[in-house]
Amino acid sequence: MAFPGGLDVDLPGAVLFCCTQNAIRSPMAMGLMKHFYGKVIFTDSVGVRAGDLDPFAVTAMDELGIDIAKYRPKSFDDLEDTSFDLIISLSPEAQHKAVDLTRTMACEVEYWPTFDPSIAQGSRDQVMDSYRGVRDQLFKRIRARFGVVKAPTV
C-alpha cells in the first residue's frame, strides 16, 4: 500500500493479537496498534480464555495517552469474524491456539514471546515497571514489524 509522503509499506489489512487471558499483553498490543495504525489496519485481540482487564495494564497505557479501560476481554470462541491476515501470539498457550485456528485458513501466524507482568512481585512501583517494560517491548516490536506510517500531507 502506498501512502502519501513517499512511504511504501506492505501492511496487513487485519491483525489479531492473542495471549492467555486477553487481560494484559494482547489488549496493550491492540491499543498500541490501533493508536498508530488504526486508520489503515483493523486490529482486535483475544485470549485462550477471557480474563478480567488488568488495572496495571490500563495505567501503563494511560501513561502514553492510550485508553484501553473500556476494552472487554474475550476468548477465541467469542470471535465473530476470523478474516485476519496476521495473528500475533504473545504466549505459548495462545501460539498453540492460533496454529490450530489457522489450519484451515490462509493466515500468517507470528510468535512474539512476551513476559507476563502479572507474575511480577515487589512494591507497586516495581510491579508497574514490569508492565511498562512489556508495553515498551510491544511498542518497539510493533514499530519494527509495521514501520512508521506517515500521515497524508494536505
UniProtKB/TrEMBL annotation:
<keyword id="KW-0059">Arsenical resistance</keyword>
<protein>
    <submittedName>
        <fullName>Arsenate reductase ArsC</fullName>
    </submittedName>
</protein>
<dbReference type="GO" id="GO:0046685">
    <property type="term" value="P:response to arsenic-containing substance"/>
</dbReference>
<dbReference type="InterPro" id="IPR036196">
    <property type="entry name" value="Ptyr_pPase_sf"/>
</dbReference>
<dbReference type="InterPro" id="IPR023485">
    <property type="entry name" value="Ptyr_pPase"/>
</dbReference>
<dbReference type="Pfam" id="PF01451">
    <property type="entry name" value="LMWPc"/>
</dbReference>
<feature type="domain" description="Phosphotyrosine protein phosphatase I">
    <location>
        <begin position="13"/>
        <end position="148"/>
    </location>
</feature>
